Amino acid sequence: MNHAELAENFIKDGERTTWHDETLWFVRKKRDLAAFQIPEWEALREAASQIKHNGLSHMHEYLIAFEEKATANGIKVHWAMDALEHNQIVHRILKENSIAEIIKSKSMLTEECHLNEYLIENGVDVVDTDLGERIVQLREEKPSHIVLPAIHLKKEDVGETFHQHLGTEKGNKDPQYLTEAARQHLREKFVSRKAALTGVNFAVAETGEFVVCTNEGNADMGAHLADVHIACMGFEKIIPERKHLGVFLRLLARSATGQPITTYSSHFKKPRPGQQMHIVIVDNGRSQQLGREDFRNSLKCIRCGACMNTCPVYRRSGGHSYHSAVAGPIGSILAPNLDMRKNADLPFASTLCGSCSNVCPVKIDIHDQLYKWRQVLVKEGHVPFGKKVAMRAMTFTLSHPGVFKTAGKMGRKMMGLAPFTVSNGLNPWYKQREMPAPPKESFREWFSKNRNGQ
Ligand code: SF4
């Protein structure tokens, strides 16, 4: 199903849609308050954008420098060309250590690569330890937001899921009670599992260290207790120097949730004695995106989710309607790079209001890229046949004044005499709207009667 069809499913529950919309708008407002408290906010955004620009322009050198430093620190560095190779590397590390159970903290890259499914198919038990991710995992759903994976669910839904899977009291939806149940359930996994997988928020070329940000401390708990720590990152996570972290860490938490700082911003530089630390650096289409002049800036993304929280379409259509690991405006400019045909609908799921670009902490021109993707997709032939024909007809009509005039007259007549020709189920606009009564005359006719020559 495409975005419009999936969104139609989501909005059937009007109350939930309004609640989803308001909840995300609340997060957006928190972001505004946090940002406005910093006089140098715009300077920080500009600095972050420039640092990322430098990173993208010298990607090769920074990645090589990172590998050298990380290797010297005792970390084993692996390179994966695509999702499958990434999954195979992770599986191989587990097999080499005879490990068949793993805990994971939040990593959108592993969602992109469908790692959980791959490992489960290969006999490995995977437990997500971020609370939101664990909730959606128990429900066999995908995260609907990159920072708030279970934002589409209400506490009643979570209460029911925990009752079914963790044996909590039926009907109990008290957040404290449910969180405590999750803590007990996950604590047992943390202490018993031998391998932990984390994502990477920033990888520092200068030092070979990487930083993982969480509010729950689950990445730290997993990585510190496990014998094998595997960290997975898309190559765009690289930043040149450690001092640049100050810029990104200040922007990330404020943009994501309106907090001044993420609760845990943990630096991993080397394995503790006896521990193995691996880092898997993944391309999976990023080189291609880097080579697309109009879209390379999308690789600056630090996955804060602010563009989703502000987007009127995302807020009222839900993350699952984007049918891709990363939803919302940023997902809609990343996904077509991975599969143009499958994701051709996503750049059209936007009003192009520009709010996403306004809040983006690394100043990605998101709405411009959405617009540019539309042009690419039309050129490559990835729009429905009916739309293509209609657009050609419209181009012809709008570029011939005589045809435009006649078509307008006929259209007004048809709408008056036979309104069902436009007000029917085949017209997607009609599904949500009342068609207005046609005016008696066109603006051109009114103008020549009332204003011409004045
Ligand atoms: S595109 Fe910008 S606003 Fe959206 S998630 Fe990425 S960094 Fe945040």
UniProtKB/TrEMBL annotation:
Keywords in alphabetical order: 4Fe-4S, Electron transport, Iron, Iron-sulfur, Metal-binding, Repeat, Transport
The 4Fe-4S ferredoxin-type domain, residue ranges: 291-321
Biological-process GO terms, alphabetical: lactate metabolic process
Alphabetical list of InterPro entries matching this protein: 4Fe4S_Fe-S-bd (IPR017896), 4Fe4S_Fe_S_CS (IPR017900), FTHF_cligase-like_sf (IPR024185), Helical_ferredxn (IPR009051), LUD_dom (IPR003741), LutB/LldF (IPR004452), LutB_C (IPR024569), NagB/RpiA_transferase-like (IPR037171)
Region (Disordered): 435-454
GO MF term set: 4 iron, 4 sulfur cluster binding; metal ion binding
Gene3D superfamilies: Alpha-helical ferredoxin, NagB/RpiA/CoA transferase-like
This protein's name: 4Fe-4S ferredoxin
Organism: Persicitalea jodogahamensis
